[in-house]
Automatic annotation (TrEMBL):
Pfam families: PfkB. Residues 2-293 form the Carbohydrate kinase PfkB domain. Its EC number is 2.7.1.15. Belongs to the carbohydrate kinase pfkB family. Pathway: Carbohydrate metabolism; D-tagatose 6-phosphate degradation; D-glyceraldehyde 3-phosphate and glycerone phosphate from D-tagatose 6-phosphate: step 1/2; Carbohydrate metabolism; D-ribose degradation; D-ribose 5-phosphate from beta-D-ribopyranose: step 2/2. This is Ribokinase. It comes from Lentibacillus kapialis. K(+) binds at residues 245, 247, 281, 284, 286. Activated by a monovalent cation that binds near, but not in, the active site. The most likely occupant of the site in vivo is potassium. Ion binding induces a conformational change that may alter substrate affinity.
């Protein structure tokens, strides 16, 4: 069994600096990197590096960046058969600035991601017969995302909606999701609730339940997360690490969650595993290049005295 990801594929232009420039100001940064990214590609990479088969459905341009991104996915053993080459749009680009606190700002130019259409996902799903989980985000057209979710439900797949970025969210997607996993910004954008603590996270989860989605993981950054299932909930604390780059942490979390669910873990155990993977990701630069392998996760958990339900080896 495997995981199918429908989402964006981008080249990330990453500038590292001690502090952000003020509006109209010019300052000197520390370094720049050109790295593979895109929320969909990041999540597919996480799935593959954690030991599961991953299908990537997305679109790139007919350009050198598209070639680089496909090669990167193949190196991580992601199935790239369903990636479309756009004849009219260039490969998507994210311009990212990271400061000394590992916080980031991001400007995304969708490019070829906008060329992923309903026919593309329908053609792909006609050839996919062994997926248990679908992962979707909101960096490709909304109609395409919703159609993918509909097709997944028809096949009996478990649908995880990572409603990111906030600007791309459509509430209609909640109709087809088995679970939604928003962070603080996305929760505020959708519900107007600022999840600064457990009480507010529970309020958000209950609001989602009233909207028809019974399962949610409300992420509060370094304050941990709340796993909510039909009125029952559990708090998952964050894991303290020395952060280098927070870009892609949510994608690593989503990919890990999908892997754990595919492996038969319950949702709380899956969230603990995903939290460990997300924490380890922020210790490395690169949304995609910083995603750990399952062996790295096992070593990390062993050093931290953590256990998790998703094991490649019995080393934890």
């Amino acid at each position: 069994m495997n995981v199918t990801v429908v989402g964006s594929i981008n080249i990330d232009t990453v500038a590292v600096t001690d502090k952000y420039p003020k509006r109209g100001q010019t300052i000197f940064g520390n370094k720049i990197e050109y790295l593979p990214g895109g929320k969909g590609a990041n999540q597919a990479t996480a799935v593959a590096r954690l030991g599961k088969s991953a299908n990537m459905i997305g679109a790139i341009g007919n350009d050198i960046y598209g070639d680089k991104l496909v090669d990167s996915l193949k190196e991580s053993n992601v199935n790239t058969y369903f990636i479309k080459r756009s004849d009219s749009l260039a490969t998507g680009t994210a311009i990212i600035t990271i400061d000394q606190t590992a916080e980031n700002t991001m400007l995304v130019l969708k490019g070829a991601n906008e060329d992923l259409n309903i026919n593309d996902v329908e053609n792909a799903f006609n050839k996919i017969h062994d997926s248990e989980v679908l992962l979707v985000q909101m960096e490709v057209p909304q109609d395409t995302v919703i159609r993918a979710m509909q097709l997944a439900k028809e096949k009996g797949m478990y649908v995880i909606l990572d409603p990111a970025p906030a600007e791309g969210i459509t509430i209609k997607a909640l109709d087809y999701a088995d679970i939604v996993t928003p962070n603080r910004q996305e929760t505020y954008y959708m519900l107007g609730i600022d999840v600064v603590d457990i009480d507010n996270a529970l309020m958000a989860a209950e609001t989602f339940e009233n909207m028809g989605i019974k399962n949610s993981i409300i992420k509060m950054g370094d304050k941990g997360s709340v796993v909510y299932q039909s009125g029952e909930w559990e708090y998952i604390p964050s894991i303290s690490v020395e952060a280098v780059d927070s870009v892609g942490a949510g994608d690593a979390f989503a990919g890990a969650l999908a892997c754990a669910i595919t492996n038969g873990c319950d949702l709380v155990s899956a969230a603990h595993f995903a939290t460990a993977v997300g924490a380890l990701k922020v210790t490395k630069l690169g949304a995609q290049m910083g995603i750990p392998t399952i062996d790295e996760v096992n070593d990390f958990c062993k050093k931290k005295g953590l256990t998790h339900c998703y094991l490649k080896e019995s080393s934890v």
